[in-house]
Amino acid sequence: MDSRTLPSNAGQQGLSILQLHHVGAKSGSKRVTPLAYWPASDTSVAVLASNYGAARHPGWYHNLIAQPSAVVEIDGDWWTVTARVAPPAEHALLIDRIARSSAAVTTAISRASRQIPVVVLELVAQRREAGTDSMTRSTSSRSAAGSR
User: Do residues 83 and 121 make contact, with C-beta atoms less than 8 angstroms apart?
Assistant: First the structure.
């Protein structure tokens, strides 16, 4: 799912939504992108670079490849994250699990003429707020994704 065109009823479709705070790879501008997410492990969540099945990867994907450190807001909690593209075995496992959870995702996957990357966001540390560098808890002291 991607950016400014995320359906307003995404939450009603059973999709959990996070806010990804990232930096433009070319512009250096701060960006905020709402994305559907799924738990990947006790300390990570997965997002799909589906771009609704379009031929190109979404801009936020390119931004995370260029600068994998970002911040997400999940249910009012702010987390510093490190993004990585799931390798083939993990990709297969996650894409299957995600596709079974949502008809909208299945549709986007079937429309795509490319392999849709699964981006894993490792929850590094919880933050007090978006603009601060001070961390309150690391994932070793709290399992955020497992409680979502």
Answer: yes
